[in-house]
Design goal:
102 residues; alpha/beta; 2 domains; three-stranded mixed sheet; two-stranded parallel sheet; 5 strands; 42% helix
């Protein structure tokens, strides 16, 4: 698997500025200075997958409205509840989508 080196000069492309969170997945290598910069910027580090839409809601084709909803649900789960386990996030997201759609 190809790894991405996250440094000060490419850091901004990985920050979710709306939620003040930096999502780290297993494909990233973080340089030592990045954590210091994130702390100075008051950005929380969340460990987990960047895109779990592939695992979420496999039974249905994900339309554009669901994509936005799924991303909001995932962000709430990760940021507000600090849950980063992809299987748990997928399970919770599926449950929420099923309850909304029934």
């Amino acid at each position: 698997m190809k790894k991405t080196l996250v440094r000060k000069n490419n850091l901004n492309q990985f920050i979710d500025k709306d939620n003040k969170v930096f999502i780290v997945d297993d494909s990233m290598i973080i340089s030592p200075g990045v954590k210091d910069v994130l702390k100075e910027m008051d950005i929380n580090i969340v460990y987990g997958k960047l895109d779990i839409r592939k695992k979420v809601n496999k039974k249905e084709e994900i339309n554009e409205n669901n994509k936005a909803l799924i991303e909001k649900i995932v962000t709430i789960i990760k940021v507000d509840f600090n849950i980063c386990d992809i299987d748990k996030i997928s399970e919770i997201t599926d449950t929420v989508l099923n309850r909304i759609n029934t």
